[in-house]
Design goal:
This protein is of the alpha/beta class. It has 13 helices and eleven strands. It has a domain of 217 residues: Aspartate Aminotransferase, domain 2, CATH 3.40.640. The strands form two sheets. The chain has a seven-stranded mixed sheet with strand order 1-7-6-5-4-2-3, sandwiched between helices. A four-stranded antiparallel sheet has the order 8-9-11-10. Helix 7 links the parallel strand 2 and strand 3. The chain is globular, with a radius of gyration of 22 Å. The termini are far apart. The chain binds pyridoxal-5'-phosphate (PLP).
Amino acid sequence: MSFRDDLAAASEWAATYLETVGERPVASVLAPGEVAARLPAAAPERGEPFSAMLADLDEIIVPGLTHWNHPRFLAYFANTGSEPGILAELLVATLNVNAMSWGTSPAATELEQVTLDWLAQLLGLPSGLHGHIEDTASTSTLAALAAARELRPGGAVYASEHAHFSVEKAARILGLEFRAVPVDDDLRMRTDFSLDDATAVVATVGTTSFAAVDPVEVLAERCEAAGVWLHVDAAYAGAAAVCPEFRACLAGVERADSIVVNPHKWLFTPMDCSALWTRRPDMLRAAFAAHGDYLAATDGAIDLRDHGPALGRRFRALKLWFVLRWYGREGLQALIREHIRLAALFEEWVAADPDWEVSAPRQFSLVAFRHRRADNDEIARRATATGSVFVATTKLRGESVLRLAIGNGQTQQADVERAWNVLRECAQ
Ligand code: PLP
Protein backbone atom coordinates (compact mmCIF):
# COMPACT_ATOMS: atom_id res chain seq x y z
CA MET A 1 0.00 0.00 0.00
CA SER A 2 1.27 3.46 -0.83
CA PHE A 3 1.05 6.53 1.39
CA ARG A 4 -1.72 7.77 -0.96
CA ASP A 5 -3.80 4.65 -0.29
CA ASP A 6 -3.32 4.96 3.46
CA LEU A 7 -4.18 8.63 3.28
CA ALA A 8 -7.39 7.79 1.45
CA ALA A 9 -8.22 5.18 4.10
CA ALA A 10 -7.53 7.69 6.89
CA SER A 11 -9.62 10.40 5.29
CA GLU A 12 -12.47 7.94 4.72
CA TRP A 13 -12.19 6.94 8.38
CA ALA A 14 -12.26 10.58 9.52
CA ALA A 15 -15.23 11.53 7.32
CA THR A 16 -17.23 8.48 8.42
CA TYR A 17 -16.40 9.16 12.06
CA LEU A 18 -17.66 12.74 11.85
CA GLU A 19 -20.85 11.61 10.09
CA THR A 20 -21.63 8.90 12.64
CA VAL A 21 -20.11 10.07 15.92
CA GLY A 22 -23.55 11.12 17.17
CA GLU A 23 -24.66 7.47 17.09
CA ARG A 24 -21.88 6.35 19.45
CA PRO A 25 -22.04 6.25 23.25
CA VAL A 26 -20.62 9.66 24.24
CA ALA A 27 -18.58 8.80 27.30
CA SER A 28 -16.46 5.75 27.95
CA VAL A 29 -17.55 3.69 30.93
CA LEU A 30 -14.56 1.32 30.96
CA ALA A 31 -12.73 0.36 34.14
CA PRO A 32 -9.08 1.43 34.57
CA GLY A 33 -6.70 -0.97 32.81
CA GLU A 34 -9.24 -2.48 30.39
CA VAL A 35 -7.76 -0.87 27.28
CA ALA A 36 -4.15 -1.48 28.29
CA ALA A 37 -4.95 -5.17 28.89
CA ARG A 38 -5.94 -5.52 25.24
CA LEU A 39 -2.70 -4.04 23.92
CA PRO A 40 0.59 -5.92 23.38
CA ALA A 41 3.10 -5.36 26.19
CA ALA A 42 5.86 -4.35 23.76
CA ALA A 43 6.23 -2.61 20.38
CA PRO A 44 6.35 -4.93 17.33
CA GLU A 45 9.66 -6.21 16.10
CA ARG A 46 8.76 -5.60 12.47
CA GLY A 47 6.80 -2.72 11.00
CA GLU A 48 3.06 -3.24 10.49
CA PRO A 49 0.75 -1.97 7.74
CA PHE A 50 -1.46 1.05 8.35
CA SER A 51 -4.53 -1.16 7.90
CA ALA A 52 -3.59 -3.09 11.05
CA MET A 53 -3.43 0.15 13.02
CA LEU A 54 -6.79 1.33 11.70
CA ALA A 55 -8.35 -2.02 12.61
CA ASP A 56 -7.06 -1.79 16.20
CA LEU A 57 -8.15 1.83 16.39
CA ASP A 58 -11.69 0.64 15.67
CA GLU A 59 -11.62 -2.44 17.86
CA ILE A 60 -9.58 -1.45 20.88
CA ILE A 61 -9.14 2.30 21.09
CA VAL A 62 -12.35 3.93 19.92
CA PRO A 63 -14.58 1.88 22.28
CA GLY A 64 -12.44 3.20 25.12
CA LEU A 65 -12.75 6.84 24.13
CA THR A 66 -14.99 9.58 25.36
CA HIS A 67 -16.12 11.35 22.21
CA TRP A 68 -15.37 15.03 22.65
CA ASN A 69 -16.45 15.62 19.07
CA HIS A 70 -19.95 14.24 19.83
CA PRO A 71 -22.93 16.61 19.57
CA ARG A 72 -24.19 15.49 23.00
CA PHE A 73 -20.88 16.01 24.79
CA LEU A 74 -22.28 18.57 27.23
CA ALA A 75 -19.79 18.25 30.10
CA TYR A 76 -16.85 20.49 31.14
CA PHE A 77 -16.51 22.98 28.27
CA ALA A 78 -17.54 21.16 25.10
CA ASN A 79 -15.27 21.81 22.11
CA THR A 80 -14.96 21.03 18.41
CA GLY A 81 -12.46 19.37 16.12
CA SER A 82 -13.84 21.17 13.07
CA GLU A 83 -13.25 20.20 9.46
CA PRO A 84 -10.78 23.02 8.69
CA GLY A 85 -8.94 22.25 11.91
CA ILE A 86 -8.70 18.54 11.09
CA LEU A 87 -7.42 19.27 7.59
CA ALA A 88 -4.88 21.74 8.95
CA GLU A 89 -3.58 19.21 11.50
CA LEU A 90 -2.85 16.79 8.67
CA LEU A 91 -0.87 19.45 6.85
CA VAL A 92 0.90 20.60 10.02
CA ALA A 93 2.20 17.09 10.63
CA THR A 94 3.13 16.82 6.97
CA LEU A 95 5.17 20.03 7.12
CA ASN A 96 6.46 19.28 10.63
CA VAL A 97 8.05 22.71 10.98
CA ASN A 98 9.26 24.00 14.31
CA ALA A 99 8.15 27.58 14.99
CA MET A 100 10.63 28.12 17.80
CA SER A 101 12.39 31.06 16.12
CA TRP A 102 11.63 33.29 13.18
CA GLY A 103 14.71 31.86 11.45
CA THR A 104 13.68 28.23 11.87
CA SER A 105 10.58 28.80 9.72
CA PRO A 106 9.80 32.46 9.03
CA ALA A 107 6.27 32.00 7.68
CA ALA A 108 5.22 30.03 10.76
CA THR A 109 6.14 32.91 13.08
CA GLU A 110 4.66 35.58 10.83
CA LEU A 111 1.42 33.65 10.28
CA GLU A 112 1.10 33.18 14.05
CA GLN A 113 1.38 36.92 14.62
CA VAL A 114 -1.01 37.85 11.81
CA THR A 115 -3.56 35.22 12.86
CA LEU A 116 -3.51 36.41 16.46
CA ASP A 117 -3.97 39.99 15.22
CA TRP A 118 -7.00 38.78 13.23
CA LEU A 119 -8.41 37.03 16.27
CA ALA A 120 -7.78 40.08 18.47
CA GLN A 121 -9.77 42.17 15.97
CA LEU A 122 -12.58 39.61 15.87
CA LEU A 123 -12.83 39.75 19.67
CA GLY A 124 -12.63 43.55 19.78
CA LEU A 125 -9.34 43.55 21.71
CA PRO A 126 -7.24 46.72 21.58
CA SER A 127 -4.83 47.04 18.67
CA GLY A 128 -1.10 46.75 19.20
CA LEU A 129 -1.15 43.75 21.54
CA HIS A 130 1.54 41.13 21.12
CA GLY A 131 -0.04 37.73 20.57
CA HIS A 132 1.35 34.23 20.42
CA ILE A 133 0.03 30.69 20.78
CA GLU A 134 0.68 28.31 23.67
CA ASP A 135 -0.60 24.74 23.95
CA THR A 136 -3.11 25.38 26.74
CA ALA A 137 -4.50 28.12 28.97
CA SER A 138 -2.52 26.55 31.80
CA THR A 139 0.71 27.37 29.97
CA SER A 140 -0.53 30.79 28.85
CA THR A 141 -1.33 31.72 32.45
CA LEU A 142 2.01 30.35 33.62
CA ALA A 143 3.75 32.54 31.03
CA ALA A 144 1.74 35.63 32.02
CA LEU A 145 2.45 35.15 35.72
CA ALA A 146 6.15 34.59 35.01
CA ALA A 147 6.14 37.96 33.24
CA ALA A 148 4.33 39.53 36.21
CA ARG A 149 6.98 38.14 38.55
CA GLU A 150 9.65 39.99 36.58
CA LEU A 151 7.94 43.26 37.54
CA ARG A 152 7.09 42.43 41.16
CA PRO A 153 8.89 39.33 42.41
CA GLY A 154 8.03 37.49 45.57
CA GLY A 155 4.41 38.55 46.04
CA ALA A 156 1.11 36.76 45.93
CA VAL A 157 -1.25 35.88 43.08
CA TYR A 158 -4.88 36.76 43.76
CA ALA A 159 -7.75 35.12 41.89
CA SER A 160 -11.36 34.19 42.51
CA GLU A 161 -12.09 31.15 44.63
CA HIS A 162 -13.78 29.95 41.42
CA ALA A 163 -10.70 30.59 39.23
CA HIS A 164 -9.43 27.57 37.33
CA PHE A 165 -6.88 25.56 39.31
CA SER A 166 -4.31 26.27 36.59
CA VAL A 167 -3.85 29.70 38.24
CA GLU A 168 -2.91 28.18 41.58
CA LYS A 169 -0.71 25.63 39.81
CA ALA A 170 1.14 28.36 37.90
CA ALA A 171 1.70 30.32 41.12
CA ARG A 172 3.08 27.18 42.77
CA ILE A 173 5.46 26.50 39.88
CA LEU A 174 6.71 30.09 40.05
CA GLY A 175 7.20 30.05 43.83
CA LEU A 176 4.46 32.63 44.35
CA GLU A 177 1.80 32.36 47.01
CA PHE A 178 -1.76 31.84 45.75
CA ARG A 179 -4.59 33.58 47.55
CA ALA A 180 -8.19 32.74 46.72
CA VAL A 181 -10.53 35.74 46.83
CA PRO A 182 -14.14 35.03 47.87
CA VAL A 183 -16.93 35.61 45.37
CA ASP A 184 -20.02 37.80 45.82
CA ASP A 185 -23.63 36.64 45.47
CA ASP A 186 -23.29 36.70 41.67
CA LEU A 187 -20.24 34.40 41.90
CA ARG A 188 -17.95 37.26 40.82
CA MET A 189 -14.62 37.78 42.53
CA ARG A 190 -14.82 40.47 45.21
CA THR A 191 -12.58 43.48 44.72
CA ASP A 192 -12.04 44.64 48.31
CA PHE A 193 -8.78 42.81 49.01
CA SER A 194 -5.41 44.39 49.67
CA LEU A 195 -2.91 44.58 46.82
CA ASP A 196 0.02 45.55 49.06
CA ASP A 197 1.92 42.31 48.55
CA ALA A 198 0.47 41.37 45.16
CA THR A 199 2.54 40.25 42.18
CA ALA A 200 -0.52 39.69 40.03
CA VAL A 201 -4.29 39.50 39.96
CA VAL A 202 -6.06 37.02 37.69
CA ALA A 203 -9.61 37.95 36.69
CA THR A 204 -11.70 35.22 35.12
CA VAL A 205 -14.13 35.99 32.30
CA GLY A 206 -16.19 32.81 32.34
CA THR A 207 -15.32 30.76 35.40
CA THR A 208 -15.06 27.02 34.86
CA SER A 209 -18.00 26.00 37.03
CA PHE A 210 -20.51 28.79 36.31
CA ALA A 211 -18.97 31.02 33.60
CA ALA A 212 -19.25 34.01 35.95
CA VAL A 213 -17.49 37.17 34.81
CA ASP A 214 -15.24 38.87 37.35
CA PRO A 215 -15.38 42.71 37.53
CA VAL A 216 -12.43 43.30 35.22
CA GLU A 217 -12.88 47.09 35.03
CA VAL A 218 -12.67 47.59 38.78
CA LEU A 219 -9.76 45.19 39.10
CA ALA A 220 -7.96 46.91 36.21
CA GLU A 221 -8.35 50.28 37.91
CA ARG A 222 -6.96 48.95 41.18
CA CYS A 223 -4.11 47.02 39.55
CA GLU A 224 -3.09 50.04 37.49
CA ALA A 225 -2.96 52.25 40.57
CA ALA A 226 -0.92 49.67 42.48
CA GLY A 227 1.41 48.71 39.61
CA VAL A 228 0.23 45.10 39.77
CA TRP A 229 -0.04 42.86 36.70
CA LEU A 230 -3.61 42.00 35.70
CA HIS A 231 -4.06 38.78 33.75
CA VAL A 232 -7.49 37.93 32.33
CA ASP A 233 -8.41 34.26 31.96
CA ALA A 234 -11.09 34.26 29.27
CA ALA A 235 -10.19 30.74 28.13
CA TYR A 236 -13.81 29.77 27.43
CA ALA A 237 -16.01 32.87 27.41
CA GLY A 238 -13.65 35.18 25.53
CA ALA A 239 -14.91 33.52 22.33
CA ALA A 240 -18.36 35.09 22.88
CA ALA A 241 -16.80 38.47 22.11
CA VAL A 242 -16.89 37.66 18.38
CA CYS A 243 -20.53 38.77 18.72
CA PRO A 244 -20.81 42.49 19.50
CA GLU A 245 -23.83 41.88 21.74
CA PHE A 246 -21.71 39.74 24.11
CA ARG A 247 -18.56 41.85 23.96
CA ALA A 248 -19.32 43.62 27.23
CA CYS A 249 -17.86 40.59 29.01
CA LEU A 250 -14.43 41.84 28.01
CA ALA A 251 -14.95 45.43 29.22
CA GLY A 252 -11.81 46.58 30.99
CA VAL A 253 -9.60 44.07 29.23
CA GLU A 254 -7.94 46.92 27.32
CA ARG A 255 -6.30 47.88 30.62
CA ALA A 256 -5.15 44.35 31.48
CA ASP A 257 -1.54 43.32 31.00
CA SER A 258 -2.38 39.98 29.46
CA ILE A 259 -5.36 37.91 28.35
CA VAL A 260 -5.81 34.29 27.35
CA VAL A 261 -8.57 32.90 25.11
CA ASN A 262 -8.57 29.24 24.04
CA PRO A 263 -9.56 28.66 20.42
CA HIS A 264 -9.55 24.97 21.39
CA LYS A 265 -12.49 25.58 23.69
CA TRP A 266 -15.23 27.56 21.94
CA LEU A 267 -13.63 28.62 18.67
CA PHE A 268 -13.92 25.34 16.77
CA THR A 269 -10.17 24.66 16.72
CA PRO A 270 -8.93 21.15 17.58
CA MET A 271 -6.79 20.60 20.66
CA ASP A 272 -4.45 22.25 21.30
CA CYS A 273 -4.46 26.02 20.76
CA SER A 274 -4.39 28.76 23.38
CA ALA A 275 -4.03 32.42 22.40
CA LEU A 276 -2.11 34.71 24.77
CA TRP A 277 -1.93 38.46 24.20
CA THR A 278 0.00 41.01 26.19
CA ARG A 279 0.81 44.68 26.03
CA ARG A 280 4.08 43.90 27.86
CA PRO A 281 5.96 41.44 25.59
CA ASP A 282 9.18 42.88 27.04
CA MET A 283 8.26 41.25 30.35
CA LEU A 284 7.58 37.89 28.69
CA ARG A 285 11.00 38.16 27.10
CA ALA A 286 12.56 39.10 30.44
CA ALA A 287 11.09 35.90 31.86
CA PHE A 288 11.80 33.53 28.98
CA ALA A 289 14.49 34.74 26.57
CA ALA A 290 17.51 32.45 26.67
CA HIS A 291 20.56 32.28 24.49
CA GLY A 292 21.81 29.16 22.74
CA ASP A 293 25.07 29.42 20.76
CA TYR A 294 23.62 27.10 18.13
CA LEU A 295 20.50 29.20 17.61
CA ALA A 296 21.28 32.62 16.19
CA ALA A 297 18.67 35.38 16.45
CA THR A 298 17.73 37.37 13.34
CA ASP A 299 17.92 41.15 13.49
CA GLY A 300 14.51 42.74 13.23
CA ALA A 301 12.64 39.45 13.78
CA ILE A 302 10.71 38.14 16.77
CA ASP A 303 11.55 34.73 18.17
CA LEU A 304 8.40 33.36 19.74
CA ARG A 305 10.37 30.87 21.89
CA ASP A 306 11.37 33.95 23.95
CA HIS A 307 7.74 34.44 25.02
CA GLY A 308 6.90 31.18 26.76
CA PRO A 309 8.37 28.12 28.47
CA ALA A 310 8.77 25.81 25.45
CA LEU A 311 11.53 25.92 22.85
CA GLY A 312 9.98 23.58 20.26
CA ARG A 313 6.72 25.04 19.04
CA ARG A 314 4.11 23.32 16.85
CA PHE A 315 2.79 25.16 13.81
CA ARG A 316 -0.56 25.75 15.53
CA ALA A 317 -1.19 29.00 13.70
CA LEU A 318 -2.03 27.08 10.53
CA LYS A 319 -5.13 25.46 12.03
CA LEU A 320 -6.33 28.69 13.61
CA TRP A 321 -5.81 30.47 10.29
CA PHE A 322 -7.82 27.76 8.47
CA VAL A 323 -10.60 27.89 11.08
CA LEU A 324 -10.93 31.70 10.92
CA ARG A 325 -10.98 31.65 7.12
CA TRP A 326 -13.36 28.68 6.81
CA TYR A 327 -16.03 30.15 9.11
CA GLY A 328 -15.35 33.84 8.70
CA ARG A 329 -16.65 36.28 11.29
CA GLU A 330 -20.25 35.48 10.30
CA GLY A 331 -19.84 31.73 10.63
CA LEU A 332 -18.26 32.03 14.08
CA GLN A 333 -20.97 34.43 15.22
CA ALA A 334 -23.73 32.15 13.96
CA LEU A 335 -22.41 29.16 15.94
CA ILE A 336 -21.80 31.11 19.15
CA ARG A 337 -25.27 32.70 18.94
CA GLU A 338 -26.89 29.33 18.33
CA HIS A 339 -25.11 27.76 21.31
CA ILE A 340 -26.23 30.62 23.56
CA ARG A 341 -29.79 30.35 22.20
CA LEU A 342 -29.86 26.62 22.94
CA ALA A 343 -28.54 27.16 26.47
CA ALA A 344 -31.19 29.84 27.07
CA LEU A 345 -33.87 27.44 25.83
CA PHE A 346 -32.61 24.69 28.12
CA GLU A 347 -32.61 27.15 31.02
CA GLU A 348 -36.28 27.93 30.26
CA TRP A 349 -37.21 24.23 30.32
CA VAL A 350 -35.49 23.77 33.68
CA ALA A 351 -37.08 26.90 35.17
CA ALA A 352 -40.55 25.78 34.02
CA ASP A 353 -40.34 22.35 35.67
CA PRO A 354 -41.26 22.41 39.37
CA ASP A 355 -38.97 19.43 40.12
CA TRP A 356 -35.91 21.30 38.90
CA GLU A 357 -34.26 24.66 39.46
CA VAL A 358 -31.66 26.83 37.78
CA SER A 359 -28.84 27.05 40.34
CA ALA A 360 -27.00 30.11 39.07
CA PRO A 361 -27.90 32.62 36.38
CA ARG A 362 -27.07 31.18 32.95
CA GLN A 363 -23.95 32.68 31.45
CA PHE A 364 -23.14 32.28 27.75
CA SER A 365 -23.76 28.64 26.74
CA LEU A 366 -23.52 27.17 30.22
CA VAL A 367 -26.48 26.28 32.47
CA ALA A 368 -26.01 25.19 36.10
CA PHE A 369 -29.10 23.48 37.46
CA ARG A 370 -30.29 20.82 39.86
CA HIS A 371 -33.12 18.50 40.68
CA ARG A 372 -34.70 19.76 43.89
CA ARG A 373 -34.89 16.37 45.63
CA ALA A 374 -32.89 13.68 43.80
CA ASP A 375 -29.13 13.09 44.09
CA ASN A 376 -27.71 15.19 41.25
CA ASP A 377 -24.40 13.30 41.08
CA GLU A 378 -26.40 10.12 40.62
CA ILE A 379 -28.47 11.76 37.86
CA ALA A 380 -25.26 12.73 36.02
CA ARG A 381 -23.86 9.23 36.43
CA ARG A 382 -27.05 7.56 35.20
CA ALA A 383 -27.52 9.95 32.30
CA THR A 384 -23.93 9.46 31.18
CA ALA A 385 -24.24 5.67 31.56
CA THR A 386 -27.09 5.68 29.01
CA GLY A 387 -24.42 6.61 26.45
CA SER A 388 -26.65 9.16 24.87
CA VAL A 389 -25.36 12.26 26.69
CA PHE A 390 -22.37 13.31 28.73
CA VAL A 391 -23.03 15.75 31.56
CA ALA A 392 -21.05 16.41 34.72
CA THR A 393 -21.58 18.12 38.04
CA THR A 394 -19.78 20.77 40.01
CA LYS A 395 -20.25 22.20 43.51
CA LEU A 396 -22.11 25.36 44.44
CA ARG A 397 -21.70 26.29 48.11
CA GLY A 398 -20.93 22.67 48.91
CA GLU A 399 -23.89 21.23 47.00
CA SER A 400 -23.70 19.25 43.75
CA VAL A 401 -25.26 20.89 40.73
CA LEU A 402 -25.41 19.71 37.13
CA ARG A 403 -23.76 21.67 34.34
CA LEU A 404 -24.85 21.64 30.73
CA ALA A 405 -22.23 23.28 28.50
CA ILE A 406 -22.90 23.68 24.79
CA GLY A 407 -19.88 24.18 22.56
CA ASN A 408 -19.70 21.50 19.89
CA GLY A 409 -20.22 22.74 16.34
CA GLN A 410 -22.55 19.81 15.56
CA THR A 411 -24.91 20.26 18.53
CA GLN A 412 -28.51 20.89 17.43
CA GLN A 413 -31.70 21.68 19.30
CA ALA A 414 -32.71 18.01 19.03
CA ASP A 415 -29.56 17.06 20.97
CA VAL A 416 -30.39 19.45 23.79
CA GLU A 417 -34.00 18.18 23.84
CA ARG A 418 -32.74 14.63 24.08
CA ALA A 419 -30.40 15.56 26.92
CA TRP A 420 -33.29 17.13 28.84
CA ASN A 421 -35.44 14.03 28.32
CA VAL A 422 -32.67 11.69 29.44
CA LEU A 423 -31.95 13.79 32.53
CA ARG A 424 -35.61 13.81 33.55
CA GLU A 425 -35.88 10.06 33.05
CA CYS A 426 -32.75 9.52 35.13
CA ALA A 427 -34.16 11.62 37.96
CA GLN A 428 -37.17 9.30 38.32
N1 PLP B 1 -9.25 28.61 32.51
C1 PLP B 1 -10.55 28.29 32.51
C2 PLP B 1 -11.56 29.33 32.85
C3 PLP B 1 -10.94 26.98 32.21
O1 PLP B 1 -12.23 26.64 32.25
C4 PLP B 1 -9.95 26.01 31.90
C5 PLP B 1 -10.33 24.63 31.58
O2 PLP B 1 -11.47 24.28 31.45
C6 PLP B 1 -8.61 26.41 31.91
C7 PLP B 1 -8.30 27.71 32.22
C8 PLP B 1 -7.51 25.44 31.59
O3 PLP B 1 -7.49 25.22 30.23
P1 PLP B 1 -6.39 24.33 29.52
O4 PLP B 1 -6.90 22.94 29.55
O5 PLP B 1 -6.26 24.90 28.15
O6 PLP B 1 -5.12 24.47 30.30
